[in-house]
């Protein structure tokens, strides 16, 4: 039987002072509770909500596992 992977914490350090590179604009709808969490994390890390969301999306892209419906 295959062993389940343990989730890895998404760790974020305080933001160093420098400007980011090229970006594109996108619209995203999220739950209000999730927005409130991002607001708290943004304050604690001196990063914008947008930057934290981008970091979380990049992390998800590197760690996503797509499964077939029959694997459920």
TrEMBL record:
InterPro entries: Ribbon_hlx_hlx. GO terms for biological process: regulation of DNA-templated transcription. This is CopG family transcriptional regulator. It comes from Faecalicatena orotica.
């Amino acid at each position: 039987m295959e062993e389940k992977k343990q989730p890895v914490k998404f760790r974020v350090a305080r933001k160093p002072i420098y400007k980011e590179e090229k970006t594109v604009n996108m619209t995203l709808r999220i739950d209000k509770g999730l927005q409130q969490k991002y607001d708290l994390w943004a304050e604690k890390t001196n990063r914008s909500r947008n930057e934290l969301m981008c970091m979380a999306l990049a992390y998800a892209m590197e760690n996503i596992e797509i499964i077939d419906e029959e694997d459920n």
